């Protein structure tokens, strides 16, 4: 799996590739991350990457000619992704789709944005949330992290991502480790019982409970069993709600 990140500030991105699991995956040859400075694709002595917007307005806009040269220098690629608040929402399902690709080009904008003609040279626009950042680098790194962890061999346990939040349609269940008691807060007894079937059911119910409380919208798309639906109705009734499988 190869990533090419196009940015005006490579110093913001490169440290991310030098620590933790991303760095280990690079050293093991599981992924490759190329961080390229868009300024390298200018042709004037001042290395100008932006200009005033036509029609007036505040701020500066990144130039189409410079950005397209940077994109074309990174080709061929399976996807050229422009990080943009106007893009499709980035989800776990999209991460799973992108993790099957061989080469992703991630284009991080800055200033007031990028000349709209660049949209003709990308395969999709992606947003990581309904807010505005100073630039697209954080969004590019979010996509890098979310997809790279799905590449076989990157995580120590090959099954560890299968029950992540969102991967199975629900928020994750609560996790505990040592010490068994801390300031009066104890690890649930079931988790130390050694009874695997009870543990699995407890985890499922806690995931359902968390999702109902915090992200009930996810339940409309989650693959729920009859037992799950019965638990949700019983739990919600005890809480004074009116949950049904129709939402």
Question: What does this protein structure show overall?
Answer:
- The protein is α/β, with parallel strands linked by helices and 247 residues long.
- The chain is 30% helix and 16% strand.
- It has helices at residues 10-13, 20-27, 64-74, 92-98, 137-148, 196-214, 226-238; strands spanning 2-7, 32-37, 50-51, 61-62, 79-89, 103-107, 124-127, 181-182, 185-186.
- Strands 2-1-6-5-7 form a five-stranded parallel β-sheet, with helices on both faces. Strands 3-4 form a two-stranded antiparallel ribbon. The chain has a two-stranded antiparallel sheet with strand order 8-9.
- α6 crosses α7.
- The longest helix has 19 residues, at 196-214.
- It is elongated, with a radius of gyration of 23 Å.
Which features does this protein show?
five-stranded parallel β-sheet, alpha/beta, 247 residues
In a few lines, what is going on in this structure?
The protein is α/β, with parallel strands linked by helices.
Number of helices: 7
Strand content: 15-25%
Pairing-aware structural class of the strands and helices?
alpha/beta
Which residue ranges are poorly predicted, with pLDDT under 50 across at least 5 consecutive positions?
none
Query: Which H/E pattern describes the elements?
Result: EHHEEEHEHEEHEEHH
> What integer value in Å does the Rg equal?
23 Å
Distance between the termini: 39 Å
Share of helix, binned: 25-40%
| Mean pLDDT level | 93
The major beta sheet can be summarized as: 5 strands, parallel
Total E-strand runs: 9
- Please state how the strands of the largest beta sheet are arranged side by side: 2-1-6-5-7
What is the 3D shape? elongated
């Amino acid at each position: 799996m190869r990533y090419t990140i196009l940015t005006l500030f490579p110093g913001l991105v490169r440290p991310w590739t030098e620590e933790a699991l991303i760095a280990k995956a690079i050293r093991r040859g599981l992924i490759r991350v190329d961080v390229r400075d868009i300024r390298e694709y200018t042709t004037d002595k001042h290395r100008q990457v932006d200009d005033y917007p036509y029609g007036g307005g505040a701020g500066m806009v990144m130039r189409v000619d410079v950005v397209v040269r940077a994109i074309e220098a990174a080709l061929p690629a399976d996807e050229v992704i422009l990080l943009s608040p106007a893009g499709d929402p980035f989800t776990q399902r999209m991460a799973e789709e992108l993790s099957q690709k061989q080469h992703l080009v991630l284009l991080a904008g800055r200033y007031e944005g990028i000349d709209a003609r660049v949209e003709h040279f990308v395969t999709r626009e992606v947003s990581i949330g309904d807010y505005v950042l100073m630039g697209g680098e954080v969004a590019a790194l979010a996509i890098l992290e979310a997809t790279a962890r799905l590449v076989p061999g990157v995580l120590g346990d090959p099954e560890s991502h299968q029950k992540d939040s969102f991967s199975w349609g629900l928020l994750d269940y609560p996790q505990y480790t040592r010490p068994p008691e801390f300031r009066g807060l104890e690890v649930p007894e079931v988790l130390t019982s050694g009874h695997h079937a009870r543990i699995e059911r407890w985890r499922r119910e806690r995931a359902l409970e968390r999702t109902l409380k915090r992200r009930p919208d996810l339940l409309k798309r989650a693959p729920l069993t009859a037992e799950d639906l019965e638990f949700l109705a019983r739990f919600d009734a005890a809480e004074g709600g009116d949950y049904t499988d129709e939402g």
